[in-house]
Structures are given as structure tokens and as C-alpha cells.
Amino acid sequence: MLSQQIRTEFLNFFEQHGHLRVPSAPLIPRDDPSLLLVSAGMVPFKAYFLGQKVAPQDRLTSCQKAFRATDIDEVGDLSHDTFFEMLGNFSFGAYFKAEAIAYAFELLTRNFGLDPARLYPSVHPSDETSVQLWEKVAGIPAERISRLEENFWQAGPTGPCGVDSEIYFDLGERFGSGQGERPGQGERYLEIWNLVFMDSEQLTDGSTVPLAHPGVDTGMGLERMAMVLQGCDSIFDTDLFAPIQEDFAGRASKLAEQPGDQGARHLRRLSDHARAACMLIADGVVPSNEGRGYVLRRLLRRASVSALSLGVEGGLAPCVSTVVAVLGETYSELASGAERVRAVIEQEEVRFEETLSRGLEHFEEVLASAEGGTIAGSAAFRLHDTFGFPLEVTEDLASARGVEIDREGVERLLKVQREQARASRTISLAGTAETDLPPTEFVGYDQLEASGQVRLLLRQGQPLDRAGAGEEVEVVLDVSPFYAEGGGQVGDRGALTWGDGSALVLDTRAPQAGARVQHCRVLEGELRQGQDVRATVDREHRAGCAAHHSATHLLNAALHHRLGEGVIQRGSLVSAERATFDFSWPHPLSEY
Ligand code: SER
Questions:
Q1: Is residue 199 in contact with ligand 1, taking CB distance under 6 Å?
Q2: pTM (2 decimals)?
């Protein structure tokens, strides 16, 4: 059965059972700041479950575009993808477990012709009702039903939630490991449909309250259903992916050279990521360094890495017409936006090539300084952070030269960076002005990283010997690359790392001439008086400040140039995100 027939069969079935068919919402969620991208069929209907809005009908059915990055590292195996289509039926108080199970069983066995003996439902251990219903409605005995703790579903940290019953299809012994695995383990049992019995709402404090009208949210992965109904070994062999894979394979001059199953894995990853990127761009996502734009950028970069490994002639962009041929009829925004999609991908590929060639020079330097066959975590992190050089590229290139990278070290710095993004900037350096501070040699004009020693640890002006994870302290180093707040420009941020520890530098100030104090939060390990540390400035933050600093000088110069010397600067604030500039001038300014 072709994927288009599966969509139609599913939606028709539920229409015949009184459901209103609604079109897919865009991948960018409307009015839902808790999610970057629509990750399930129920997302556009959250407010209906919660009773905040009234649904156009109390039963809906849809084929919803969805994207999940949670399993991105699994993509390359037989069944994981990032963009997928989710077929669903939804009840907002109209029906609950019995009808949902009956509908699912009927559609799977009658319309899709699946052998009931190959269906293996699972339920939450607390949900005896569903066990009984599966037996009554479908004749599936209790011993064929797995009770899994993870059978509970919610679309984010807050919102509607409930226990669920998943339906697994037995692909056959050929897919098994021979270890007698059960549904939920290994590849033999493929989850094809999830029936969620929404009866609660999770609140921000983690507590749950019952929903006024319990409902049903189901999700059937179209790609997986196509795999089953088309008798394929993987979702990538179905009509939803095969033409895209073939397009890449036909242009991949180095496919045959790949060891083991590497070629096949690269092809699957490439097909998934390129297809997902097309769908995201068609819905208005543009590559950037944050939020959903970053998700897209990362996808395109990962795909480019695979394309490079396989020697794909022409890169990613030519696949757009193939993706349009597969999905353009179902999603008209893809067909009508094809040219733009292609242009965005081309532009991003060019940018990435520049990044790679710039990064390659630095990679060579890093490689030359690698000691003992290992690239230091901080060096690999810098390639990634400063030059946008993906870690997997560093790893691939390094391993081709017989060198490893210190993964743990990189992970630690990545963690610091994530924390940094979250860190608050309400900082007090109370007491440091009155303390006798040792001098610091400032090396930050031409160095953004330096080795130093902790000369003094303070809290509220009181010296202390050590600070543990979670504590905030003032740190004075003998040598520091951190620029202190001054002249309206905020202080540097960054990280201190040592042996088994790390700390965030949240701010830097100079409360006395020649002295420099870093306000830090210890993340891991213990920071001690006398500790040798590696101090690393957050480059992006510094670069943002530098750019805004230059902008205020340019603005000042331009004002003097246009208006004359009567312009008097009254103050300015320079941060990584913005600059403000106050000035006085005796006349109103005319429009330029
Ligand atoms: N929301 C559930 C899921 O995504 C069922 O649609 O699995």
C-alpha cells in the first residue's frame, strides 16, 4: 500500500466514524512557547484537551507534520527519523479507552489487513482496564500484553497527559536478536501506534490535576506503517524515502568505499536530514544560531558532513526536487516554496563550506599541538564553538590521522556553555571593594584563554578556602583573560576548568585599580585557593560586546560628523546583545 493510500485510508476511516478531518498545522507552533517545533499530532490541539478552547468538533482526525530532535543520534538505523508524519484520531470528551482500542484494532486488521497474531499491545502497569479491553475487543490475551512503566505520555513539561497503550508489530524473527526480546526492546517489535488516554494536566510545579473531560490522542507514524505495509526492512526503503536515498546514492562517488554499514547509515542520515530540512524551510524556519533556526542549521551541517563523507556530487540542494516529488502533493507549501527551499539550502551549504575551510586551517594547528595522540577537549570545543567546526568532523578527520579527541573534556565545556546560556546576571560583588585584593595580570587583549592560579576566593567579601558545586564565589586569579566591566561595557563571561571541575564565569569586575574579580558559579568539583585553572573567555559574548562597542564609537563619530562638536555623550551601555547611547544636543534632530 502506497503512503498516499495509507493517509487516505486512515483519514477516511475516522471520518466515517464521525471525526472531522483537519489539515496539518505548520511545524512552527502557534501560541506555544513551550515547544520549538510541533512534535506530535496533538500539539495543535492542546487547548482543546485543556478545555481552554472549544474544538470545532469533539472528534478530529489529521495527518500532522512533526519534528523531533530527541532521537537525532539514532538516525541512521532502520526506523528513526527527525521529520515524520503522524496520523491521529482525537477525542475531546467524546470517547475514551474502549472506543480508541476498538477503532485501532479494526483499522489495523480490517483496513490494513495486519495479522492480529502479530500485534502486541503494551499498557501502563496501573492500567488494568486497557488489558481487559484488549482481551475483550481484540481477543488479545493478557500474557501478550507488556506492562511498561514508560507508557505515559505528555507533550512537554506542562500540559495534558495520561497513560498510554502502544501497539507493536512483530516484524518477525529475522529482525530479532535471538535473545527472546519483548516489545519495547530491540528491533523485532516495531511500535506503530500510540493511544494516549489523556486524563490529567501537568502543572508548572510538577503536580497533576484531572482534566474536566478526559480525551484520546493517538499517533501512528506514517513512515513505520509504510514500512510494515510495504514489507520493507527499514523506513528508508519505503516510497517516502527510497527516491531520496536513490538520488543521493546515485551521486555518491565514495559510497562503495565506506567500511561496514557506514555507507548505508550515512545515506539514511542524509535522506532524513535533507527531507526534514526541506519541510522546516517550507514552513518558514531559517538557519540561525538559536532556537529552531539552530535545529535547522545543525541538520544541514550534519547532512553536509555525510554528503562529504560519501562524496555526493552537487551536495544537498539538488535533492529538493526529489523531496518535492515525494511530498509536494500532500504539502502544497513545499511545492510552492521549492525555489526558496533550494536557495536557503544552497546558501547554507556555501556558508558551511567556508566554515569548513576556515576550520581546517585551525584543525591542522590543533592537530599539530595534540599531545599523546589526543586532542584536548578545550581545543576541539574551540573549533566547534568559535569556528562552527562540527565535533563529528573533528573526530572523523582526527581518527583518519590516528588521533582521538577528549570527548569527556568537550562534553564538560558544552555543559558549561549550556549553563552559561541559562545563568542569571543578577550579581553582587558586595564586599570586594573593601578587601585587600591581590593584583591580576590582564592578558585578555590578545588572548582569550590563559592558565592562571586562584589567588583569592571570597564570598560577600569574606575569604574562604574552597567552594563546592552550586556555590557562587568571587575568584581572583594571578593571570586573567577576562575583561572587566568598564566604560559602560559589561564584563566578560566564560569558564574556569581544572582537573575534574568547572565553573561558570558570570561576570568580571575591577573593584580596585589593577585587581580583577571573576564572579563564578562552581558547576562540578571543588574550587580551591591555590588551584591551577584554565580560564576561557566566552568568545561569542566578547565578540558581541566588541561589535556593539565599535557601533557606539561609529555612532558617536557619525553624530559629530553630522551635527558638529556640540554633541555630548551622556552615557552608554554596551552588552553582547545591544548597545544604547545617550547624548545631548540642543535641537531636535531632523529626519535624515
Ligand atoms: N502524542 C502521542 C505520541 O506522540 C500520541 O499521538 O506518541
A1: no
A2: 0.70
